[in-house]
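Can anyone check this?
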Amino acid sequence: MDRPTEPDLRALMAVVGHEFSDISLLRLALVHRSYQAEHGEPDSNERLEFLGDAVLGWVIAAHAYRRLPHDDEGRLSDLRQAVVNTGALADRAREISLGDYVLLGQGESSGGGRDKDSILADGFEAVIGAIYLDGGEAPAASFVLRMLAASVEEAIPVLDTVDAKTSLQEMCAAGGHPVPRYDTEGEGPDHDRVFTATVTVGNKVLGTGLGRTKKAAEQVAARAAIAALTH
């Protein structure tokens, strides 16, 4: 199969704000597994996504720690969950038109993959990983904070919402959106069980959350969704 014309990564570098010494790292961050399979690429962006997820996590955790110096671990975790979730990261990816640069297989591309939340969020994390490998901690942290610091500020006021699920439902109703749907799963033994909740509005995942109870996980997910809708 003939390879499609690839986008000019110099334009993406300008938007990202990091001049890559090894531009092949940025290209790799854009290689979706569907493109890898169709064109015999040696790797996809999944390893860089794994690394970028870790970098993103510690940068936001450190920022939350400094931003809320008197808050407990639970509230810091809520803040991180509100900012670092698939829907929120996909929106940040759209801000830099990342979908225009992602390398997709023909089927994934024709099926709307360039605007799919999961692909955009994964690509965004992979770009973070690429920046980290190319330039180290400082440029990676700078990129993360430039893209997400405003989201942190927007999320802080809604952390104190007494019932985030109710607030989200009211917000959706006022905005003409479908009723939020929660999918919650638990893992681990009964004495140390952790629940993961995902809230979907229409066909879009707006937030995820972790908690020791189903209710707590859904509240965190709802807060993340509120932050996504109010950005």
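Reply from J.R.: I decoded it. The chain has a mean pLDDT of 89.
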